Amino acid sequence: MFSNSPHVIALPKWSRPLLPYWRRYNTGWEGIFKFAKVLIDRKMAEIECRVHQQEALEGEYLTHLLSNTNMSLKDVYGSVAELLLAGVDTTSNTLTWALHLLSLNPEVQSRLYREVSRSGPEPSAEEVTRMPYLKATIKETLRMYPVVPLNARIFSEKDVVIGGYYFPKKYLMCC
Fold first, then answer.
1. Which long-range contacts (CB under 8 A, 24 or more apart) does 107-115 make?
2. Cβ distance 21 to 6 under 8 Å?
3. Which residues are listed as membrane-spanning (predicted)?
4. How many whole angstroms from its chain centre is CA 59?
5. Beta carbons of 131 and 118 less than 8 angstroms apart
6. What are the extents of the domains in the chain?
7. Whole-model pTM?
């Protein structure tokens, strides 16, 4: 599906249904939505079971979506599918850079390990909110290596003037 995205986006809307890229693009999206539906249906069954057992349901994204009366079930499926899709590249990219930076900074790695280890092998969402060093590590990783290209930081190789503004060589810019 992703390999077809550039072709689909670049083409005029009227021409899209005429080309094989469009069909492959739609087939890819349909597969993602079917996968999301399976996950959502499974989670909805778990939620229903927890409701019958009178367990707490706070803090879960799907529970929040399902309790939103303005969203249809179809909208919930779409929202979760898009969340899964968007999170794949951004999360893996951030995690890769974080691990790289941690490998270069053993002191930071040790401090982060100690903080995370205090919560056991599978910290809850609530426990993660009480991990300030983890949050700082992720924020610093995103500052140094943002996943959104429009926020990318670059150093100019030479003095430049853009829109009447002077930027000296080696100046950190956002583009």
1. 108/137, 112/137
2. no
3. none
4. 18
5. no
6. 1-88, 149-175
7. 0.52
User: Can you spell out the DSSP letters for 66-94?
Assistant: HH-TT--HHHHHHHHHHHHHHHHHHHHHH
Q: Digits of tens for pLDDT over the chain (175 positions)?
A: 555 566 666 777 787 788 787 788 788 878 878 887 888 888 878 877 877 787 766 666 777 776 666 778 788 777 877 777 777 778 888 999 999 999 999 999 999 999 999 988 888 878 888 999 999 999 999 888 888 765 555 667 888 888 888 888 877 766 5
Number of Cβ within a 10 Å radius of residue 80: 20
Handedness of CA 41, 42, 45, 47 (dihedral sign): negative
Angle at 24 between CA 23 and CA 26, to 5 degrees: 65
CB atoms inside a 10 Å sphere around CB 30: 11
